[in-house]
Automatic annotation (TrEMBL):
It comes from Podilymbus podiceps. It comes from the Eukaryota. This is Choline transporter-like protein. Keywords: Antiport, Cell membrane, Glycoprotein, Membrane, Mitochondrion, Mitochondrion outer membrane, Phosphoprotein, Transmembrane, Transmembrane helix, Transport. GO terms for molecular function: antiporter activity.
């Protein structure tokens, strides 16, 4: 591309600008209107109760207020019969209807009655007729409630599979069967049951530790804020302190892992391999294995060595990057509201996520109840759809006396139901488009504010009164179309990646190696393409904020400007990214270590204050993840500031030469170290 030429009228972000990419702006508005229509249609037809509450064979909800089955909180699984009924509690014993009826005990028959159809009243009716008419199940099995459904209470005791306390059961037809026959049908249910138990324990840990988690996140926020403020005044010292602290924190992690590894030597069971142990829901088990601590120690050693080697090779470039960070600190100091702006972006992203999730749920529950013919003898109508209202008067009952019209699943054959998958696809696409638009709006706003700082010849006197709000207003008024264009391109690539992941999931069971290889190549290519588009969009938004040009022109100018300064990109931009990553690592590591010592009762001053937990890693991981998100939010402002100043610096070097007639706009401190660092343009 052609380098920028000297322009005496250029004073930073152009205020006299026009609307760009209007067509994309119109498309975005139409898409949002269509998205609202889809949401209204989904909310009109959808019913989230279908996800939460089970149904009986008539399609009526179990346990839902205002329904005939309001007080029924479970249903018998349709394993022994296609008939499904709502019950107030799950069976707790083995019992056949023949045994309950023959015992003549009112209590036994009364207990069995609650598992029969609601209209079954005649307790004196012959058992054969009752079972033939499917008014009561032939057999009750001890069951446990899971997600408002009843599943066989299968457990293992000393390697023996049992249901309740029995290893065999009577099937209701006079035969004894082994409970292992129930195992296959309930295997997945037991996996879900174990997952549910794990989830309940995790939930319990959150209930007793949530306020300590909040305190940990507040500490992370305060630490991030203090770090940012100190960067404003002590950028050079803080960067070197950060580097040393990261090395020390990793070093302590290596030392702690070695101590735990040596402590377990000779203890019973500590030499079991992770492969032999397999997956355990109680993750504390892994901490009693030497191999676990050895793996942690090796990983930390690799990270430590990589960071030290990078610091050795980049030691001269780090001085230059520190100068850029100092300048970014001064820019952030003059636009302090920029530190709070990520909260606005976060709020808008939460709205996008909430709308997408609720629309997805309502769309997935928009189907209608479908009823099918069930029978035990041969019948030509078996499996066909039917209507319960007219079934008893139809020819089906005449030709197949034992046939029943029962609820099968939720579906539909209308045009709306046929295109539900298209509406779900549109929902996903719009989520990506709007989320990327919100992120783009945040980036172009911060870029405009920081560009106002750089191109102010007398800082901060020549800056506008409210640079952040001015940049936000310009972005919405003039460049909504450009932001929509850039986010649309990124959304298309992301939707393609989601589709490829879905195809990869469906092809896991297939044995077509070529298809898997081709799919892996496509996934890799589109991953790289997404990263490149994100990088290009970010720099295009900076050019939009400065010059007010359309997206394509801004992307082209940004790309060629970076290519003309490719060495500077590698030297400055990426080194500062590395330093910011170390800063996030320092905050997360420090808060994580503090949380580890607190929740494991290793701080004597507050040893009795820490709550008792099932899994102490639950609050620790929550604090670590939350701390990273908080630190990332603060450092993302600095990252955008550095990228903006870097592009402005490259433009400044092309437009000006530092002479009295064409002086640089960069600060004297920045120009001194950058130009001495052999980064001045070739004459």
């Amino acid at each position: 591309g052609t380098p920028q030429k000297y322009d005496p009228t250029f004073k930073g972000p152009i205020y006299d600008r026009g609307c760009t990419d209007v067509i994309c702006c119109v498309l975005l508005v139409l898409a949002i209107v269509g998205y609202v229509v889809v949401g209204v249609v989904a909310w009109t037809h959808g019913d989230p109760r279908k996800v939460i509450y089970p149904t009986d064979s008539r399609g009526q909800f179990c346990g839902q207020q205002g329904t005939p089955n309001e007080y029924a909180k479970g249903r018998r699984p349709p394993r022994l019969s296609p008939v499904q009924i709502c019950v107030s509690e799950c069976p707790d014993r083995y019992l056949t209807y023949l045994k309950a009826h023959s015992s003549r005990a009112p209590a036994e028959l009364g207990y069995y009655r609650q598992f029969c159809l609601p209209e079954f009243k005649d307790l004196q009716k012959p058992p054969i007729e009752v079972l033939k008419d499917k008014e009561c199940p032939a057999l009750l099995i001890p069951s446990v409630p899971l997600a408002r459904r009843c599943f066989p209470a299968i457990r293992a005791k000393k390697g023996v599979i049992m249901v309740g306390n029995e290893t065999t059961y009577e099937d209701g037809h006079g035969q004894r069967r082994n409970v292992t026959e129930l195992l296959e049908g309930a295997k997945k249910a037991n996996v879900v049951l174990e997952t549910r138990q794990l989830a309940m324990k995790i939930f319990e840990d959150y209930t007793v530790s949530w306020y300590w988690i909040i305190i940990g996140l507040v500490i992370a926020m305060v630490a991030s804020l203090i770090f940012i403020v100190l960067l404003r005044f002590l950028a050079g010292i803080m960067v070197w302190v950060m580097i040393v602290m990261v090395i020390l924190v990793l070093g302590y992690g290596i030392f702690h892992c070695y101590v735990e590894y040596a402590k377990l030597k000779g203890e019973a069971g500590s030499d079991v391999s992770l492969k032999d142990l397999g997956f355990q829901t109680d993750l504390r088990v892994y901490l009693h294995l030497r191999q676990t601590w050895l793996a942690f120690m090796i990983i930390l050693c690799i990270v430590e060595v990589v960071i030290i080697l990078l610091l050795i090779f980049l030691r001269k470039r780090i001085l230059i990057a520190i100068a850029l960070i100092k300048e970014a600190s001064r820019a952030v100091g003059h636009v302090m509201m920029s530190l709070l702006f990520p909260l606005c972006t976060f709020f808008l992203l939460c709205l996008c996520i909430a709308y997408w999730a609720s629309t997805a749920v309502f769309l997935s529950t928009s189907n209608e109840a479908v009823y099918k013919v069930f029978n035990e003898t041969a019948c030509q109508f078996s499996g066909q759809t039917c209507k319960p209202e007219t079934f008893n008067t139809s020819n089906v009952t005449k030709l197949c006396p034992d046939a029943q019209c029962l609820f099968a699943f939720y579906g539909g054959e209308t045009s709306y139901h046929k295109y539900l998958i298209v509406l779900q696809f549109f929902n996903v696409f719009m989520f990506f488009w709007l989320a990327n638009f919100v992120i783009a709006l945040g980036q172009v706003t911060l870029a405009g504010a920081f560009a106002s700082y750089y191109w102010a010849f007398k800082k901060p006197d020549d800056m506008p009164a409210f640079p952040l709000f001015s940049a936000f207003g310009r972005a919405l008024r003039y460049h909504t179309g450009s932001l929509a264009f850039g986010s649309l391109i990124l959304a298309i690539v992301q939707v393609i990646r989601v589709t490829l992941e879905y195809l990869d999931h469906r092809l896991k069971a297939a044995d077509n190696k070529f298809a898997k290889f081709l799919l892996s190549c496509l996934k890799c290519c589109f991953w790289c393409l997404e990263k490149f588009i994100k990088f290009l969009n970010r720099n295009a938004y900076i050019m939009i904020a400065i010059y007010g040009t359309n997206f394509c022109t801004s992307a082209k100018n940004a790309f060629f400007l970076l290519m003309r300064n490719i060495i500077r990109v590698a030297v400055l931009d990426k080194v500062t990214d590395f330093l910011f990553f170390l800063g996030k690592l320092l905050i997360v590591g420090s808060v994580g270590i503090l949380a580890f010592f607190f929740f494991t009762h290793r701080i004597k001053l507050v040893q009795d204050t820490a709550p008792p937990l099932n899994y102490y890693w639950v609050p620790i991981l929550t604090v670590i993840v939350g701390s990273y998100l908080i630190a990332h939010g603060f450092f993302s402002v600095y990252g955008m500031c550095v990228d903006t100043l870097f592009l402005c610096f490259c433009e400044d070097l092309e437009r000006n030469d530092g002479s009295p007639e064409r002086p640089y706009y960069m600060s004297p401190e920045l120009s001194e170290i950058l130009l001495k660092g052999n980064l001045e343009p070739s004459k």
